[in-house]
Prior knowledge:
Blueprint: E1 8-12, H1 16-24, E2 29-32, H2 36-39, H3 51-64, E3 69-72, H4 77-83, H5 99-118, E4 124-128, H6 134-137, H7 148-162, E5 166-170, H8 174-183, E6 188-191, E7 199-202, H9 204-208, H10 225-242, H11 256-264
Parallel strand pairs: 1-2, 1-7, 2-3, 4-5, 5-6, 6-7
Amino acid sequence: MKRRGDKIVMITAYDAPSGRLADAAGVDLILVGDSSGMVMHGRESTVPVSLEEILFMTQWVTRARSGRSSWPTCRSARTRLERAGDRERGAAGERGRSRRGEARAERHVGRTGEAIVDAGIPVMGHIGLTPQTATVLGASRHRDARRPREGADSGRARAAGCGCFAIVLEAVPEAVARAATKALAVPTIGIGAGAATDGQVLVWHDMLGYSEGHAPRFVKRYAEIGDAIVDALGRYADDVRSGAFPEAQHTYAMPEEELKTFERR
């Protein structure tokens, strides 16, 4: 699709109904993301989401899809290596605000990704704002005007060195995303990275309009499902309280002879 210039459509999903609907709509990739921590589990961030939870939800989603790919996200570098069957336990990423610390983290992530690929597990890289490190590295990691080339070089190195099949570019300036997309042989999937990437991804609840709180500026609402759900639940509650539900068509009846027998008893 990258070679043909066809845009790649990716959406998050966390259960079988969502996976089925995304599949029916012709979505190319389904991301079973740790965004579930906030939009599904009521947490304040994605950080507490465990890999076990992601894998559990992935099972639900894959039961509904007919052939399109779905990939779980993995957060902990140590857990990634353990899940890949690698016995090297010393590759957990170091995190810090200094450029030296970030460089060390990039090298560690690179080795981790390579180990996972070597274990036969496809890897999608992630450059820019990663919610798991935003509180440590800061949300402006690749927005500093002095560092756009570093962002593109980071993506190129991540793909070439780790064997990633694609790279997510999150909350980076469009110029950085354009440069990375041009430099990389593998597809780039943007979220808050402008229109120059090979594809786009949005969070299910954000784009359908039933997530809580303020939506990021890059979110486009395609529906207001939350309002429709509240309206439907309100009408249901009114019908139950007034006795309007259930009606005869919602009720099971017995054959006349069986009813007489039942009443005689």
